[in-house]
Write a structure and sequence with these properties.
Blueprint (H helix, E strand, L loop, with lengths): L9 E9 L6 E10 L7 E7 L5 H9 L6 E6 L2 E2 L6 E4 L11 H10 L5 H14 L17 H14 L4 E5 L7 H18 L2 E5 L3 H7 L2 E6 L4 E7 L14 H18 L3
Parallel strand pairs: 3-8, 3-9, 6-7, 7-8
Antiparallel strand pairs: 1-2, 1-4, 4-5, 9-10
Helix pairs in contact: 2-3, 2-4, 3-4, 4-5, 6-7
The protein binds adenosine-5'-triphosphate and magnesium ion (MG).
Adenosine-5'-triphosphate binds next to helix 1.
């Protein structure tokens, strides 16, 4: 499933996953090609029923897990050393024994950035995610609320300007207002840094609002079953959710999810 002839940034070729020597395949023959748009990046959303393999796919791309069979390629090559990938996990993933500032700055220390610059850059992004004034607090609940902790995770993932940003249901545990704010924030950060994003959600409206391309996965075995290109303007704001075309896209995705969900 490729949109252009440019070298893809991420490619999965006939990937398969079994944990019991091949009796049951959690994922089988899953293939996807993700190609960046120049100076824009790409925003891919993965949808699919619980257990279909979305988090597993993200772990492959992050280099945290190897599939049983098939290939995972970044820029046409197998993942060898740590690629410029950041991941926001399904659960809160900040380090509770460090302050907000140190959590965010830590992501830069791996890149060998000097301490002063680390702190300045970390503060810059902390302001962007609306956590100024909280930077000296420990990144733990209940010192910070769930939404604030998730913003720390997003700030950590963005500060090192990753080429690839993997987000696994990052807003799943947030209240609706915080969730809408975080959607706006992510959309702004994406326009500024234009990474390649793979974003997992169960929320169709969120998928259409944020995504350039939506892939619906089937389960048993997990595969990329449907691709919907979202032909909405590049710059979006929340008002777009009332547009007729947006509403039609949400219905189209929902219908396809129902069809994929009933596949055996
Ligand atoms: N170590 C393991 N041993 C056996 N099965 C596993 C193992 N790790 C993952 N699985 C199975 O792989 C399947 C895919 O898991 P994955 O976490 O990728 O699903 P998901 O699509 O992210 O689901 P959700 O929407 O609930 O987060 C699940 O059925 C899970 O039980
Ligand atoms: Mg998951």
């Amino acid at each position: 499933m490729s949109s252009t002839n440019a070298t893809p940034i991420i490619e999965l070729r006939n990937v398969g996953q079994t944990y019991d020597g091949g009796n049951h395949w959690v994922i089988k023959n899953a293939s996807i090609t993700i190609t960046d748009k120049p100076a824009q990046g790409e925003f891919v959303v993965l949808l699919g029923m619980s257990g279909c393999g979305k988090s597993t796919i993200l772990r492959y791309v992050a280099g945290l897990q190897k599939p049983t069979e098939g290939q995972v390629l970044i820029h046409g090559k197998p993942i060898e050393e740590a690629p410029r990938v950041s991941m926001v996990f399904q659960q809160y993933s900040s380090l509770p024994w460090l302050t907000v500032l140190d959590n965010v700055a830590l992501a830069l220390s791996y890149k060998g950035v000097a301490e002063k610059e680390r702190r300045d850059k970390a503060m810059e992004i902390i302001k962007k995610v609306g956590l100024e004034g909280h930077e000296k607090k420990f990144a733990q609940y209940p010192t910070l609320s769930g939404g604030q902790l998730q913003r720390v995770a997003i700030a950590r993932s963005m500060v090192a300007n990753p080429e690839i940003l993997l987000m696994d249901e990052p807003f799943g545990a947030l209240d609706i207002n915080t969730r809408l704010q975080m959607q706006e924030l992510l959309s702004e950060l994406w326009l500024e840094f234009h990474p390649t994003v793979i974003f997992v959600t169960h929320d169709i409206s969120e998928a259409v609002y944020l995504g350039d391309d939506i892939y619906i996965m089937r389960s048993n075995p997990g595969q990329f079953e449907q691709h919907i290109h979202i032909d909405l303007p590049f710059h979006r704001n929340r008002g777009i959710k009332r547009d007729q075309h947006f509403i039609e896209l949400v219905h189209e995705v929902e219908d396809k999810m129902v069809a994929v969900g009933s596949m055996k």
